[in-house]
Design goal:
The protein has six helices and five strands. The chain folds into two domains: 2-61, no CATH class; 69-218, Nuclear Transport Factor 2, Chain: A (Roll). It has 219 residues and is of the alpha+beta class. Strand 1 and strand 2 (159-175) form a beta hairpin. Strands 1, 2, 3, 4 and 5 form a five-stranded antiparallel β-sheet that branches.
């Protein structure tokens, strides 16, 4: 009887050893390099997270950019200064053009000073002083804009530069102390193309753009 019980125990132990060995070979042993448990993630959440991360990485490395260099530079300016808007800039550029021309014609240095760079202001001031010394008086009437467009743009570090071509119609003349016209024609409308460049530090709190270069030619 005792031998029979002993035999049964030995058989059970043998079967148990076989089962444990099979489990060991299938499941393996922990090495410390296993992936963390994922039971806290809903079905598909990890895959979605990985997909979003990959898409963001690709977007960061290869963003869609305009092929036109001016549009590309304007995009850079807009990314550096979230308040920048092309249409609002063009609207302000029209207002600045009329304000600067009117102030120059009337010799209004107070208005000109904050709108111009030091170099441009010095040139405008010299022309105004020359006119004042000669006793001349300028008159200018802006009839209207026929076109205003951005022809160049750049962003270097935090300095943004934008160049515009103003196609305008205006009446301009200069008269001496006796009222005799010495330059221009007070009755003729001229078609003029002015090319003006503005600059601004996009990190500055001052939102105003400053005129840094001008050129003009009749059309």
């Amino acid at each position: 009887m005792a031998d029979s019980q002993l035999l049964t125990i030995v058989l059970i132990a043998s079967v148990a050893c076989v089962i444990l060995y099979r489990l060991y070979t299938v499941l393996g042993r922990r090495t410390g390099h296993e992936r963390p448990p994922q039971e806290n993630y809903p079905l598909g959440a990890r895959q979605a997270e990985n997909a979003v991360g990959a898409a963001a990485k690709i977007s960061h490395i290869s963003p869609d950019r305009p092929s036109d260099p001016v549009a590309s530079s304007l995009l850079d300016i807009g990314l550096a200064d979230r308040t920048f808007d092309k249409e609002q800039f063009l609207k302000g550029a029209r207002a600045a053009y009329e304000m600067i021309l009117t102030a120059f014609a009337s010799g209004d240095r107070t208005t000109l000073k904050p709108l111009l760079s030091d170099e441009v202001y010095a040139a405008f001031d010299a022309a105004i002083r020359q006119r004042e010394t000669a006793g001349h008086k300028a008159s200018l009437t802006l009839v209207g804009f026929t076109d205003v467009k951005i022809i160049a743009a750049a962003l270097k570090n935090s300095i943004a530069d934008i160049t515009l071509a103003y196609s305008v119609r205006l009446i301009s003349a200069t008269a001496d102390a006796d009222g005799k016209v010495v330059d221009g024609d007070p009755t003729a409308v001229q078609d003029i193309t002015d090319v003006w460049s503005f600059t601004r530090d996009v990190r500055a709190h001052d939102p105003n753009w400053v005129l840094i270069a001008t050129s003009s030619e009749p059309r």
